[in-house]
Design brief:
There is one protein chain. Strands 1-2-3-4-5-12-6-11-10-9-8-7 form a 12-stranded mixed beta sheet, sandwiched between helices. It is of the alpha+beta class and about 300 residues long. A hairpin with a 2-residue loop joins strand 9 (about 225-235) and strand 10. The protein is built from 8 helices and 12 strands.
Length: about 300
């Protein structure tokens, strides 16, 4: 190397692989402090996705350390089949072209799939906003990330005719049908309307961080009508989904199920429970506020074109 050449010139951008998942998980945690995720969860997600996801990974290294991570895929659970791109660069090496080099790989991969829509998410930092707009994305929605200490949550009795049951005790098909209906009304840039049961089982029900013993459903006449899914890792938990069948809404059942799930999380030693909701999802925001959740960060949703 020539004298005076900057250290970051020794960077390498290459295809990512499962050997990178540990370092990538740590990088994602540093870049998204409210993130709840594990290396085993990343490995499971990579192994469980169908070929139609067209998932690719790329890694950036500097001095042998992973300093950048990117992935691009197709959302196979939506009939709109949007692409999705994510780029993450360690703070200490930003503004050195690493993010641009990684995004070029994402862009080329998605362009080859001839997709009409590409989605992305970012932190609310000015640098992230600038990167997204410079690459032709427009801000579509803001997602509020909120947190609560579940140890402060009191249990509540279920009303007459309603039974609270752990998801581990229920048939997954009934929970799947509940999840599919509830997901249709979750605000977002696309609708999740082509979810396959076997794929759902593998990707969600069997996710290694999913705690089916802590997750709770409200059951009426033997049928789960509201539920709250919880993933737990390293003393933190995240609500993967909370929802209610349309015919049973406005009865406080989502609040009841989520409260019971948080009480179970506290019993597992969880000290911080995270949830995220679009700012337009007034109903769930009210549920979370009643449970004591407070905003801790924001995620921005982006779309191109």
């Amino acid at each position: 190397m020539l004298a005076g050449e900057p250290v970051y010139a020794r960077r390498v951008v290459r295809d990512g692989n499962p050997d990178d998942f540990g370092a990538a998980t740590e990088l994602l945690k540093r870049s998204w402090p409210a993130r709840v995720g594990s290396e085993r969860g990343l490995r499971h997600a990579a192994a469980s996705e169908p070929p139609g996801a067209h998932r690719r990974y790329w890694a950036a290294e500097s001095e042998g350390a992973l300093v950048g991570w990117a992935t691009a895929s197709v959302n196979y659970e939506s009939s709109e089949r949007p692409g999705h791109a994510q780029v993450c660069v360690a703070e200490e090496v930003r503004r050195r072209g690493i993010g641009a080099a990684l995004f070029e790989r994402c862009e080329a991969h998605l362009a080859a799939l001839d997709l009409g829509l590409v989605l992305a998410f970012s932190t609310a930092e000015d640098a992230s906003r600038g990167f997204a707009t410079a690459n032709g994305f427009r801000h579509t929605q803001t997602i509020r990330i909120s947190g609560v200490d579940p140890r402060a949550i009191d249990a509540a009795e279920a009303p007459a005719g309603v039974e609270l049951r752990r998801l581990a005790e229920l048939e997954p098909r009934a929970v799947f049908e509940l999840d599919c209906e509830a997901m249709l009304d979750v605000p977002g840039d696309v609708t999740m309307d082509v979810v396959d049961f076997e794929q759902w089982l593998e990707e969600y029900w069997r996710h290694p961080d999913m705690d089916l013993e802590a997750s709770v459903a409200a059951v009426v006449d033997g049928k789960p009508v509201a539920f709250s899914l919880l993933r737990v890792t390293a003393g933190r938990a995240v609500s993967d989904m909370t929802g209610t069948l349309r015919a049973y809404r406005s009865r406080g059942l989502a609040l009841l199920a989520k409260r019971a799930t948080l009480v179970n999380a506290a019993a597992r030693g969880v000290e911080l429970a995270i949830t995220d909701n679009h700012e337009t999802n007034a109903a769930m925001l009210r549920v979370n506020e009643r449970l004591g959740y407070e905003p801790v960060a924001s995620t921005l949703s982006w779309s191109r074109p």
